[in-house]
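Pair request: fold both.
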Amino acid sequence: MLFLQISLLLTLLPCGDNKNDFQEPITFQIIRISSFYSRFLTQNLGSAWLDELQTHAWENDSNTVIYLHPWSKGNFSDEELIEVEKILHTFFIRLGQALYNHASQWKLQYPFELQVAGGCEMHIRDASVGFVRVGYQGSDFLSFQKNVWIPSPAGGDTAKFVCLLFNLYQGTLEIIHKLISDTCPRFLLSLLDAGKTYLQRQVRPEAWLSPGPSPGPGRLMLVCHASGFYPKPIWVMWMRGEQEQQGTQRSDVLPNADGTWYLQVSLDVEASEASGLSCRVRHSSLGDQDIILYWDHRSSSGWIILAVIVTLVLLAGLAFWLRKSWTCCKPSNTLFPLE
């Protein structure tokens, strides 16, 4: 089974010349956040993620699974998906019931929030690792390890009481173990297979320069933007010739609405030292053809654009003046009525 997983991963992982195209381990996980406002009012938010890409969502009222991509069902049959959904739905219902029934005993005070993350991660050279982690009010509470629930030290006595109860249900423990050790790895591989065209696509970044907020008298903030690229790994750096500028500040890589990514990289410099600086962008979609943008060219381009705009405005004004002058001086037909 391990050899089969390794073979499939090597076949399905996004490829490219950039060694950072893909980071191990690759993870599939379901996240469920339940807000308990009272014994009779609960709100649930659910989602599923393949690494940092959301693949599924849940409707709060009906717990219906929403498949966010055409390939989000993987290669599982409808019958198998329904069965997995039913098991997950039952698990979350029983978890909520246990909290309702023992809220006073466990000293759970409304309102409170419970976070559950469960899934599996796979490495090319190792077997898959399943996990279930439960958080209470944003802190570690429980985890599922070696087929039993283990309390977190941060969970105190309450976590211990919950584990004692949950570990009594041997059938549930076996179902959870099967989900994270067998069902999850198979589904992860099927997602990679069904979505390989989408996941292995290459989208070239667009890049441009702009000035940022002034950092102080006599200084400039140079900002280089890269947007619309996929996959996520990208290298952007301010350079002087072939020398990387160590003061370069990199923002987080943020998602765009279309599934691509955005990044900005800035450099605080003396205004007199801005000349000769460039921003270099490397991405797997570009091959060996890096994008290089020169700050001097940006300034020149800005003046050229401004000159073109001013010229167009002047021409438009001249045309308006000529038209008005011609209209004012045009002979009136009322002085010479036609018979």
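--- second member of the pair ---
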Amino acid sequence: MSEKATPTPDAGRRSDRSRRAIYEAALALVSETGYAKLTIEAIAARAGVGKQTIYRWWPSKGDVVLEAFLDLAQRSAVSPEDDPGAAAFPDSGDLAADLKLVLQATVDELNEPAYADPARALSAEGILNPQLGARFLEHVLAPGLRLYGTRLTAARERGEIRPETDVAIATDLLVAPLTYRWLMGTGPLDHAYADALVDHVLTGLRGA
């Protein structure tokens, strides 16, 4: 009678479990201790892996947090590839209503600590680390900005805003104040602010 074969360990599954544990540890620690106090050693200890495992996969703690953040967004079905609130950017024919809906959804996400803490950390780290900042822009910010641009371009072609409107600048006018208030805490970040922002920007874009 032959002996029963011993199952071969699944290295890929083990790696997936370790990677998932590292993601969860990094995001939890960013919220608990802040990015400045975050260390690879702390992530490794929380995840139950050796720190060399982390260094083998990522060159810095910023890279760990960025990848964990992208994974979180994908699993929560609000992909940063599609921008908060803009995964299906509405085009109802009412530009003001569409923009308010998107900005309100963005406000809700920015007020959610699970999203906001790592996003704020990555925004700040991206200034000090240009390579990380470029990846954050490419994977988190740029896709959503393009969706704003597409919607505003359609509005310009329909005559909803002035024909000479620079779509890139118009996008900045909508997104930048929201981001500034979120980063700096200069006032309440709520639906009322999002609605007022849209109204003020469209007053200028529509003209007389």
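Observation on the second member. The chain has two domains: 11-75, 78-208.
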